[in-house]
Structures are given as structure tokens and as C-alpha cells.
Amino acid sequence: MSHHLISRRQMLAGTAAAGALGLTGFPARAEVNWKKYSGTTLEVILAKGPRGDNLQKYIKEFTDLTGIKVESEQIPEQQQRQKCVIELSSGKPSFDVVHLSYHVQKRQFEKAGWLADMSGFLKDPSLTLPDLVESDFSAAGLQYARNDKGQMLSLPWSVDYFILYYNKELFQKKGVEVPKTLDEMAAAAEKLTDPKEGIYGFVGRGLRNANMAMWTNFYLNYGGEFLDAKGNILTDGPEAIEATKLYQRLLTKSAPPGVAGFNWMESMASFTQGRSAMWIDADGWAPPLEDPTASRVVGKVGYTLVPAGPKGQFSSTYGDGIGIAAASKNKEAAYLLCQ
Amino acid sequence: MLQAGGGVPFRNSIVDDPEVKKGVKTKEWLQSVIDSAKISKLGLPVIIPVAEFRDIVGAALTATRSGADPATELKKAHEQFRPILERSEKA
């Protein structure tokens, strides 16, 4: 057993955690038979991005431990999704391990039966480290990874929660409190807006399609559910109307000019320039906001929950998982990599 | 990933680990993530035509920015999307 391999857990935490934890190798009690599939070659398809980079960074250590060779490729997200569908539907995918975007592909992959069931692997001590147990995954992760029969068809990898970013300096200047409710947020946004100074109270995704990621958080907090028990879509009811009125109010009264064309990047640009006082988006933007070479709001950013609606307070959640193609002939070896 | 502030794992033991927390520079950000995890809810319906859903309802939202009535636009989007969802489930 290697004493130099970083575990998936440490990889997810960040490289510094390995040293901080003093966990530079797998626990001695582990009974995983790492060499059992030595000589196998795995093919991995990843969506291009930091998560793919992170996995690739540790492939050599995995190969040193297991003797399993890994060929991996990162492809821009949209192309990766298309390639996965084409190859998986052919029944003969070129890859064993697939990086999937749950919020887009979960239903499609499950309905088609493209992913192998990992439930048995998770319970097998010769394949699974003792600290990897289903109960360690957050509720949203399990909701994504399990199918309706309770089978684990992937391992939840990385999650995005929607949060509220706010500019403390602008709030202080106008004497505005951090909003606890959506109504308070809309009122605060209007108070913070000062077009003469080029300051706007709220920014968020206004671009068609991208705008849904923000709107659904409003919808959930107004009590909306997406589907009824029969699978019918429900997004034209009173909750949807109220959420849309809020969206309309925020983006017409308190948002910067041109917001209808804004995705996350343009929204972030407005916020980092100190031009927008609040921004709702995924949680992964702290690094650029706190980067003094790219941001004018370093040290001034508040991070908090998306405000509550009249029917609840939720954080819209999206995420990625890693799974094994049902057609793979190397499922156990692939599972060693996934975990 | 977590310590760089650019990604959050689904595993609670990592997010809650005091040693890992020490390595996170923006503590307020981390707390917002921990608190959000407790109130997390899937942000899109678990359906196959997700892209079409986002396009059609997203277009309704965009229309409201120009003053269109939310109820009318959502109704139109609903009627447009419903058969697409039905077809995808029957396929």
C-alpha cells in the first residue's frame, strides 16, 4: 500500500489539506486490494474545467498505487455532453469513466440505463475505503446520484449552491441592512440603486436560458415545485408568477443597463467593479472577487444565504458526478478511480 | 478545490473538517456554503429536455423585462414546453 497517494477525499478538500491533515496516505486499516486490477487501462471523459484539472493532477499517483493506466481527456462542456450521448447510445462508448452534469444529464442517463450500479462496490471493503460511505454525501448529492430504485449510479463529486454576494461598502454607505427576505432584497436593491453614480442594487443572469438558474431559486422560495406526481411540469402556477414578478422588478428597476445580455461572467464583472451591490449566483466565485489583480471589491464582499421567500428558504443546487459506463468491461478498476 | 474557494465537494466530512476549514481563506464564504448545504434543493427539474425547458421559460422571463405580463408569458411557455416533455418521456 502506498503511503504517498492522496485520497479522493483530500483531492476534494484541496492539496493543502493533505499536509494539514497529516494524511499523506490511505489509512492503514483499509483493506482495499489496490493491485487487483493492475495492467488494466481506463479511458476517462471529462468536462473541461477545474474539476477535470484536479482529477488529472492525481492520475499518476493513482497509477503508481494500482498499476492501472488512465487515459483521460477534457472536452469543453457542451461538446463533452454531446459526445457522451452519441457514444453511450451506440452501446460501445470509448470510455469507462464519465464526468456527468447532474442537473442536465441525470434523467437522460438513468432512463437510458447508461450507468453502472455502484451500490455493491460501495459496500465491498476490497474496493472501498472505510471513510467512503453513502451517508457522508449531502442530501442533494444523494438525490442526484441515486435512481428511483435507490441504486447509486454515480458518486457525487462537486456541488454548486446559489448564494447572495453583497458589497458591504455600498450597503454601509446607504445604511442598508442585509436582506433576510426576497421582499427586503428588492426594496434594498432599489434603495442602493443610484444611476447617476453608476451604481445598481442588483445584478444577476438576465440572458435567456442562463436566467433560469437564478429564477428557479426565487421559484423554490415562493413554494414552487417543478413536477407533480405524474411528471407534469408545474411552472405556470401562482408561485411561478410571483417569482417572475420579483425577477421583473429586480431586473427592470435595480439592474445595470444591458442586463438582459448578462450571464454569470458579465454579472461578475459588474460586481467586481463595484457597480452592483448584490449578486445571486453559484458559490464558486470567491477567488476572482477576492483577487486584487482582477477585483475592486477585495475585502468588501459579504457572502450569505439567498433570502427567504414567503414559503421557504432554499439554495438552488447544481452538481457534477462521476460514473461508470454500464458497457465498460473494467467496472471494478473504474470504480477504484471514481472513489 | 474547497480550500481554493472554487469548488465544493458533496461530502460533508470534508466541508465540516476543522483542519480543512483552517485552509480556507474566506471564512464568511465557507460559512455561506455550509449554511446553504442545509437548505439545498435541486435547481432544475429532473427531466431529459432540460435545455428546452431553460430556453422556453427563460424566453418568457426575458420578455417580462420589456414589460410583458408574467402570467401570460408563463402560460405561453407552459403550453409550448408541455408537449416537448411528454414526447421525451414517451421516447
List its salient traits:
heterodimer; A: 339 residues; alpha/beta; D-Maltodextrin-Binding Protein, domain 2; 15 helices; 39% helix; 15% strand; B: 91 residues; mainly alpha; 5 helices; 2 strands; elongated
Structure characterization notes:
The complex is a heterodimer of chains A (339) and B (91). With 339 residues, chain A is of the alpha/beta class. Chain A has helices at residues 8-13, 15-21, 50-57, 59-66, 77-90, 102-112, 119-122, 139-145, 168-174, 182-192, 211-221, 238-253, 264-272, 286-289, 331-338; strands at residues 41-47, 69-75, 97-101, 155-167, 278-282, 301-305, 315-324. In chain A, helix 10 packs parallel to helix 12 and helix 11 (211-221) crosses helix 12 (238-253). Chain A starts with 7 loop residues before the first helix and ends with a helix. With 91 residues, chain B is mainly alpha-helical. Chain B has two domains: 1-41, no CATH class; 50-90. Helix content of chain B is 64%, strand content 5%. Chain B has five helices and two strands; from the N terminus they run βαααβαα. In chain B, helix 4 runs antiparallel to helix 5. The radius of gyration of chain B is 20 Å and the shape is elongated. Chain B starts with 7 loop residues before the first strand and ends with a helix. Classes of the chains: A alpha/beta (339), B mainly alpha (91). Chains A and B meet through helix 1, helix 2, helix 3, helix 6 and helix 8 of A and strand 1, helix 1, helix 2, helix 3 and strand 2 of B.
